Diacetyl reductase ((S)-acetoin forming) (Collybiopsis luxurians FD-317 M1), 257 residues
Amino acid sequence: MVLTRLLGAALVTGASQGIGKAIAMRLAFDGYKVALNDLAHKREQLEAVAEDIDQKFGSGTFVIPADVSQEEQVKQMISSTSKALDGLDVIVANAGIAGPFKPIADISMEEWDQVHQVNIRGLFMCYKWAAKEMIARGSQGRIIGASSTAGKQGVPNAAPYVASKFGIRGLTQTAALELGKYGITVNAYAPGPIETPMIEDILKDPSTLPQALNSLPSSAKVGQPEDIASIVSYLASKEAHYITGQTICVNAGMYFD
Ligand code: NAP
């Protein structure tokens, strides 16, 4: 077990796999105590990530399953993380779902609501309760959210996802303007296609594969979760105090803004 310098406490949602897991590993490497969230059915995977972090970095972990689309659970997740890790300096609202890959005319309102429930409502509640906790504790914290290249540029056959990821940019800008006076920065990352279970599930399902492939520009290159973790590491750092309200593209030239 290696004892690291402790930078504070970070909470990552959707941390059992994919981008969230890579972010949690990276923040632990950087020296944060890390709280790991995902849905309750992912508890075993979360425990495995926690064990890996404890063995590699010994920086301290806290496993907190919760559904980010449920306000009481988000509130509880933030307060118990803050109690367990003695504060909350960074939240990465990473949990998200892809939703249906279909033309607009075929999307049901249930499908629309389901995506927004997690991607925008869930992220809003993470921003809200983390901001309250950081303000109460006087922490000049970092709030970081998961947008997407699909939050910068419309994508055919992915209307609910695109709308949710565009919404995250607006929410991130607004929160940045409101929270700047407390020294809290609010930013988001906008990945291109990254090799994670989310993308693998879409590509192995014959009902979503053709529409998903049609939605990618020919210049698209697939990245790795660590490519996103490194930008999050920077946004979480003290040096990034002068960056706020941004949604930063990480996509190897697929889209420029
Ligand atoms: P992933 O592999 O599906 O991992 C996301 C994790 O979040 C899963 O374990 C998922 O559980 C969990 N989750 C879903 N709903 C939740 C909820 N209500 N509360 C708590 N956890 C929940 O996804 P990823 O590819 O790592 O993506 C992470 C984030 O980056 C997402 O917001 C995604 O939209 C965004 N993003 C990804 C890509 C990409 O190419 N991978 C590109 C752009 C943006 P289940 O597996 O049970 O759903």
About this structure: Residues 13-14, 16-20, 38-39, 42, 67-69, 94-97, 118, 122, 146, 148, 191, 193-194, 196-199 surround NAP (CB under 6 Å). DSSP finds eight helices and seven strands in the chain.
